[in-house]
From TrEMBL:
Belongs to the FtsB family. The lineage of its organism: Bacteria, Pseudomonadati, Pseudomonadota, Betaproteobacteria, Burkholderiales. Residues 22-107 are periplasmic. GO terms for biological process: FtsZ-dependent cytokinesis. This is Cell division protein FtsB. One of its GO terms (cellular component) is cell septum. Residues 1-3 are cytoplasmic. It comes from Janthinobacterium psychrotolerans. Residues 29-63 form a coiled coil. It is found in: Cell inner membrane. It is a single-pass type II membrane protein. Its main location: membrane. Part of a complex composed of FtsB, FtsL and FtsQ. Keywords: Cell cycle, Cell division, Cell inner membrane, Cell membrane, Coiled coil, Membrane, Transmembrane, Transmembrane helix. NCBIfam families: PRK00888.1.
Length: 107
């Protein structure tokens, strides 16, 4: 009787083995579900990024506010009759501004 019980237990384990580790096994399914969740997360991040870029493109096409903002912050441009004030904190280097002396070739 003990031999039959051991044989049936061994058969049960052999039947269970493909269920856990086989091509369509539970471990593989769990791994695939994790990959799908990760892909969904990446897609959501990319959709948010695309929406932000689309909004920025729309602003650049339709309005002048975005163009003015970029000109001010990226190029350092100011309007006519406007005074530019820059506050530099202790230990902070001022942004590099290109001057004619800096671009001149050394003699």
């Amino acid at each position: 009787m003990r031999l039959i019980t051991l044989a049936l237990a061994a058969l049960l384990l052999l039947i269970q083995f493909p269920l856990w580790t086989g091509k369509g096994g539970w471990l593989r399914v769990a791994d695939m579900e994790a990959q799908v969740a990760q892909a969904h997360q990446k897609n959501m991040e990319l959709k948010a990024r695309n929406a932000k870029l689309e909004s920025e493109v729309r602003d650049l096409k339709d309005g002048t506010g975005a163009v003015e903002e970029r000109a001010r912050y990226e190029l350092g441009m100011v309007k006519q009759n406007e005074i530019f004030v820059q506050i530099v904190r202790k230990g902070q280097l001022p942004p590099m501004t290109e001057t004619p002396a800096a671009t001149a070739a050394p003699h």
